[in-house]
């Protein structure tokens, strides 16, 4: 991900973060926080995305504060909103004993590489495939209010 972040104008990414946070602000959060899921450098060399488009990068950023304990508290099938509207991530594997979590069938390899309370960075083994959620959880493609997201579940726990 470092390769890509160097090439994308920081203004573009920040404006995307700011516009997304204002449109999807959570009533339970008074400060804006983001979680970035960062693929390993090897993913850029063996991927069909050697230089991923901005939309794919938006798919790797959630406008939520998702620390390790938070992600491990959810269940398989939980939806995680992203900066790519209408395309959430889905928790696909959760091993309570080992603490291993996969999102869209991609393992989280490094927890909280960076965490300043507003931006959290987790390392993942590869890029998330947007087709994963579309094929296995098509109900998440809708924008209906009756579909609960991770944000909604957190407030009811």
Describe the fold and architecture.
The protein is an alpha+beta fold and 157 residues long. It has helices spanning 2-7, 10-23, 41-45, 54-58, 68-72, 130-136, 150-156, and strands at residues 34-39, 61-62, 79-80, 89-94, 101-103, 106-115, 119-124. Helix content is 31%, strand content 22%. A 7-stranded mixed β-sheet has the order 2-1-7-6-5-4-3. The termini are far apart. It contains 7 helices and 7 strands.
H-E order: HHEHHEHEEEEEHH
Total helical segments: 7
Give the termini distance in whole angstroms: 33 Å
Low-confidence parts, pLDDT < 50 over ≥5 residues? 1-5, 24-30, 144-157
Question: Main sheet: which strands, in order across?
Answer: 2-1-7-6-5-4-3
Biggest sheet layout: 7 strands, mixed
Note the overall shape.
Answer: globular
Mean pLDDT: 76
Estimated helix fraction: 25-40%
- The fraction of residues assigned to DSSP E strands is 15-25%
Backbone structural class: alpha+beta
